[in-house]
Design a protein that fits this description.
This protein is α/β, with parallel strands linked by helices. Helices cover 52% and strands 9% of the residues. The protein is built from 17 helices and 7 strands. It starts with 14 loop residues before the first strand and ends in an 11-residue tail after the last helix.
């Protein structure tokens, strides 16, 4: 028997959708028809992506009374349009192109894409992507560029090590860090023209002086002026990147100043230092109302396995998918660091490593850290309290563990008695 429901069709009366390219965009505006109730009017126009043209489009949308503007996340072309319309007072939504798939079998053009996006948007069949506020966006630009510079520095250091290997200089075999004080002094001497293994080995400092015989063997090679030129160029690039990173750190410190309280709370979590706290705030912001629960945040960050089920059977490998790579990098590093600590998270990491391996342990502990972060940022008065590395031992009932071990032995065919052995 059919029953009447209380559902109503909610339509955004005045909406616009943009199909954005590098040089031009197509804008489809849809508004109600005052002369024919229930009917819609639409206007499709093409605009250049230059600032004056975008301002002209903004004025036109204001004239039409548009309240919401929706656009796809197309490369980085959406950013100037989004920021300009946001500054003009519009409610701007950025949506994932995966959620706006065009109907199969229909012609696909920029105009049809804009019309389709507008129709889907006016019926509220889309979800907006997370776009942080302007202050967080500025911080994000700085922290992401810092990550890129660190990666570039690491690549340059790897080139230095390969160059030394090419010259049969085995410094990395003896010294754990060839870019320490001793390593830099030795490489500087090589660039100046010093080739004597004994003289180079004597440049070792601190604990490395105990390996002087090994260093003499390591510097017995065929280092030439060609290698010296390349080494000098590579070290200059490393030093230049170090200078740029230091300047970025100073700028990040200035930009993060209004959020000092949040940084201090995140710094309480094991594995999270100041640099990681800056990166986390830059990626997820401070307003946790955007994520109703901690599960929403972990799902958005792709630190929760994707569930695929059909006919009652789970399919796939329960992978998390690809999320924010900058946030994933920070949480992964924090998970590895906390795995070396005598804390609850450290013990959790080690227990999972023993059972399921390092990769799953990193994801699991990274998710735990993200849940903690959500609670710390949701409540300004919240502070982290470590449960202790012995949490699992205290939680587990010794008698229950004994019975579990007995069942395991009996399942293997043993007969277990609790009487003391003779």
């Amino acid at each position: 028997m059919l029953a009447q429901t209380h559902d109503t069709e909610e339509i955004i009366e005045r909406v616009a959708a943009l199909d954005i390219g590098k040089a031009t965009l197509v804008c489809c505006a849809r508004v109600p028809d005052d002369k024919k109730p229930g009917r819609r009017l639409q206007e499709v126009q093409t605009y250049a992506t230059m600032t004056r043209s975008l301002l002209s489009m903004s004025d036109r949308l204001h004239c039409l009374g548009i309240t919401r503007v929706v656009m796809e996340a197309t490369s980085d072309y959406w950013k100037p349009v989004f920021y300009l319309l946001e500054a003009q007072g519009f409610e701007v939504w950025l949506v994932n192109a995966r959620d706006v798939k065009h109907l199969p079998g229909r012609p696909k053009t920029d105009k049809l894409d804009a019309v389709w996006l507008a129709k889907v948007a006016e019926r509220q069949m889309l979800r907006p992507s997370f776009v942080p506020p302007p202050a967080i966006r500025l911080l994000r630009d700085l922290t992401r560029y810092r990550v890129d510079l660190v990666e570039a520095r690491t690549a340059e250091k790897q080139r230095v090590e390969k160059l030394l290997e090419d010259a049969q200089i085995k410094l990395s075999v003896v010294a754990s860090d060839i870019f320490g004080v001793s390593g830099r002094a030795m490489m500087a001497a090589l660039i100046r023209g010093e080739r004597s293994p004994k003289t180079l080995a004597q440049l070792a400092r601190s604990s490395l002086r105990g390996k002087i015989p090994a260093l003499e063997e390591a510097f017995t090679g065929r280092f030439s002026d060609h290698h010296a030129f390349l080494l000098a160029t590579m070290l200059a690039r490393v030093d230049a990147i170090n200078t740029d990173i230091a300047a970025l750190d100073q700028k990040i410190t200035q930009q993060i100043a209004p959020f000092t309280a949040a940084v201090e709370r995140l710094d309480e979590v094991p594995g999270i230092g100041l640099t990681a706290a800056h990166a986390i705030i830059a990626e997820i912001g401070l307003d946790m109302s955007r994520f109703p629960t901690a599960a929403h945040l972990t799902s958005w960050a792709r630190f929760a396995p994707t569930v695929k089920e059909s006919a009652g059977k789970r399919k796939g490998k329960n992978t998390t998918g690809h999320g924010n790579r900058y946030l994933a990098r920070t949480l992964g590093e924090a998970a590895v660091v906390v795995g070396r600590t005598d804390t609850f998270l450290g013990e959790r990491y080690r227990r999972i490593v023993r059972r399921k391996g390092k990769k799953r342990a990193i994801v699991a502990v990274g998710r735990s850290i993200l849940v903690i972060i959500w609670h710390l940022l949701s409540d300004p008065d919240a502070h982290f309290v470590d449960l202790g590395a012995d949490f699992y031992t205290r939680r587990t009932n010794p008698d229950r563990r004994k019975r579990s071990h007995i069942r395991e032995l009996e399942a293997l065919g043993y007969r277990v008695t609790l009487e003391p052995a003779a």
